[in-house]
Batch of 2 targets.
Target 1
Amino acid sequence: MREAIQLQLVNQSDPEQSHDSVLTPLSEVSKQRGLIDIANRLDRIRSWLEADLDDLESALESTRQNTSDLGRLAAQHLLEQPGKRIRPLCVFVASRLGRAVAPQVVRDLAVAAELAHAATLLHDDVIDQGAERRGAPTARVVFGNSASVLGGDHLLIEALRRVNRSGEPRLMTRIIDVIGAMVSAEALQLEYRGRFVPEESVYQRVVLGKTSVLFSWALMAGGMAAGLKDLELNALERSGDRLGLAFQLVDDLLDLAGDPAVTGKDSLLDLREGKLTWPLLVACERDASLLPDLQRVAADWSSAEISLPALRNRIVATGCIELTRQRALDAAAEAKSNLSVLQRSAARDALDTVIDAAVERAR
Amino acid sequence: MREAIQLQLVNQSDPEQSHDSVLTPLSEVSKQRGLIDIANRLDRIRSWLEADLDDLESALESTRQNTSDLGRLAAQHLLEQPGKRIRPLCVFVASRLGRAVAPQVVRDLAVAAELAHAATLLHDDVIDQGAERRGAPTARVVFGNSASVLGGDHLLIEALRRVNRSGEPRLMTRIIDVIGAMVSAEALQLEYRGRFVPEESVYQRVVLGKTSVLFSWALMAGGMAAGLKDLELNALERSGDRLGLAFQLVDDLLDLAGDPAVTGKDSLLDLREGKLTWPLLVACERDASLLPDLQRVAADWSSAEISLPALRNRIVATGCIELTRQRALDAAAEAKSNLSVLQRSAARDALDTVIDAAVERAR
């Protein structure tokens, strides 16, 4: 009963609670799992960053206007769903690695990271014909594909506007590259749509573009706003690359073994959308008899006449969940070890905590 | 017979001819209409800008790669169709208003203007569910909606990349605003989809965002690359605003009275897509009996059981074509008079010619 109430809170978009949209749920989940150390560390980050996270939600809320613009309505619809906000969190924490900087610049960069992410989600939903996202109907279902295309364009421009006014040309150049890489990765995924091709190189290229590049940018942007040196910025970028991989591996796990009531998306949705995930790649390697069934589900799951729960049991029986979790832990360890060139500080500890929590999250 | 051959040449995408994609057709059309003065002036601009226009086509061609990326394929498909390239032409001509500048910067800005335009076309085709563009099937018909969404994203990023490397922060800020305005105008059009609402204020807002802002940017970008002063840049922007209006009014006319074999799009397509055009707005004002029929066609033309040729005759009978042409000529005159703060020069004369030709074009 208590757990159900907590989950409801997590999935609620209560503005009063919204600055906790990432840290409270992570901390609750950690406590439930007995990870008391991580939970306490998350609680400390929460009080430390309270003003920043409040600012973030106000800034995202301020995109909420009385408007009949269908693109903006689609964008609002997505931003109102409780997201993890982990990319802006990376910006905020990294911005504390150096000397105090203009809070407005940091906030702009944090908001930009979330908006760039949200923009690609809106376009992805059109491309994947996705019906649910963050436990709610997708914007394209509510407002139509056209509104989602325009909503994505709108958020992309709003993200670029904020990076541009930060006045740091390197960040502008990099965010353009990042968005370009995100678009290419989505195109690669589209190319393999409906075909289950368990190739590691394809997986790596998709993860790099879809996830890692924006995490790298977020950490680097925060660090640049804090006046860090190139050596430190490079370390943050490499750390973000590994954090992105760890984050994606956990996403992959949640698709296979997560609780749909918590994750906000159906089980095996990635597979049904024809997306390659790491546990499936591993499962195929260990049990070749899975390949034809995975191919049929990826091609057209509704007519494949394959029981998804039974298929999931066969996948899980390969041990792919443990192997994927281990790989995520390894990537997280690499993400943390990349930070070793940075001086020890509360901010560096907080980054460690964010990395740990990204692997322990349940949604 | 001779005319048919010429039209074929115009619609062909022959790389050897492609630097003439705007000036040769305009010049031919002008000759056919007996506008010998404009034709001769266009021929002079052609030789004057030959290297620039060659550069432009090479740069656009260089986006053509051996790729399986569906987004890039969709983008290539559109760029390979012969376009008018009038926005890059504005950049090139305006760049000659001042002192010689880095040709690479001018070329980047010219290419960016065309790519930003092409990006919105790809997304518009998805939104309008358009089947033909530039006389060929749209990218979304050939490669699918998803590829067109990604193709538009790709071109948008490529446009921004080029503006960014020009190293002029003001141009970056402005192109972000311009693209934002284009997205908002498309959303406004979407909002009125399927309803024919002949309101002048709606028409003006759509034209400003869909057409004028990018023409303004193109002229201003060229002028800025040429080192012009703020006073002159402002004049170029105002001129671009009026040129954009004139250009759109002629587009509106071609939808109603153009030759589909030349324009590359079906007659009354704007109306069937529920888009408000100026001649239709004027026609309704002069013959109120048209309104219910236009509303029915805009709502669902295929089931409206209205003869489009008969409807067109009633529209034309209101005299709206002459009134719209006059308004386009007035806007062109304003565009030219805005240039009066600039010193007389070959470049300023060339801008006058581009403005005249934009009104006289047949596609």
Target 2
Amino acid sequence: MPAILYLIPTPIAENALHTLPAYVTEIVRNLDVFIVERAKTARHFVKSTGPAKPIQEMIFAEIGEHSALADAKQVFMDAITAGKNIGLMSEAGCPGVADPGAAIVALAHRAGVRVEPLVGPSSLLLALMASGMNGQRFVFHGYLSPKRPELAKDLRRIEAQAKQLDQTQLFIETPYRVQMVVEVALEVLQPDSQFSMAQDITGASEQILSMPVKDWKNLKNFQPEKLPAVFLVGKPVNK
Amino acid sequence: MPAILYLIPTPIAENALHTLPAYVTEIVRNLDVFIVERAKTARHFVKSTGPAKPIQEMIFAEIGEHSALADAKQVFMDAITAGKNIGLMSEAGCPGVADPGAAIVALAHRAGVRVEPLVGPSSLLLALMASGMNGQRFVFHGYLSPKRPELAKDLRRIEAQAKQLDQTQLFIETPYRVQMVVEVALEVLQPDSQFSMAQDITGASEQILSMPVKDWKNLKNFQPEKLPAVFLVGKPVNK
């Protein structure tokens, strides 16, 4: 059998192994070559699936640092040549989406290796589903500008795009800038624009808010958690 | 306990119930009010999970037709008032993404009802993961224009956007237009642009192709299946 590159989702919240279909953990259990964003968390995850082999006999090649990509590619080619299946894993969620895994998938296509994406959690997709905004047209921007004046400009720009194209606008932010994003958004977005924030989806402190900007302003003493967040900006939702 | 709106993914390929995590089928088994794209397929799916109640005693409100949305909203409000949890389901894949379910999610937010998105297959997300293209910035357009000259224009426009913004461009097509999309794309896209097509992901006839346009032209007698497809256009992939 020719080798396969499995794209393996991992949980996006603590203690959320239940969000993975059983066929995914079954595949993970029988692999011994992994290309991963960070070896430490990947080993921890593989261990939790009850693997067939001892962890010490497995290979975990990292692609988190830019410098390591060439090494990971070599690990990939060696495994393929030996007829071994490979697992690609992100730090959390789906590999190839908002992470550096795409380079390995592209290499697999060039090498004629079958690429098999497996089903699992994606914070972007879950946040989009849960927002109640247009899921028929949407765009993901990654991170917006980190500083207030540029962020304000970015938010006004994507708000205009949301209205003009009826296209939901998604972006993500790191824990320590979530509060600032909420503040700036409530300052600069129009009162009837829809604004959504999702944190810790599938986790114990899951919070999903979606309402017009004017209703956000009425939330008393609202404080987002210091956790990563997915934000969405959309045109006013029809009643 | 206040009622919850569960966003329930369903399989995207035949006989692919294994792609749903067990916690999803467990939740489905214990619901008896569903808002669905098409009642017939929804009943079939709910039956396959081994529900606690007879199917005839459940409510399936359709939102597939525009005219039925008001009825579905009434079913939603009645269930909430009675303290009952509700399941929202798409015809296949994730509700609220490329389907009309978002209106019900928006209603839930307005009514202060907790929205709980569950993990499952999305052909868009799986196609993006498997493409090897940039997953850090991407846009989903829904369907492009159905006629050749306008489709050619659309493809040129999204190709320019892919290069200018380094933003992967996704769109979908129905079975009977897939062949035409491939023909027009190979005519009008630049030789080094990356072009990907995914069909029947997670299914028995899964096919995922991703390569530069010039390599597509070398495929001899290539015929896509008469199945829905996800297409992606991206800038040239670095080696």
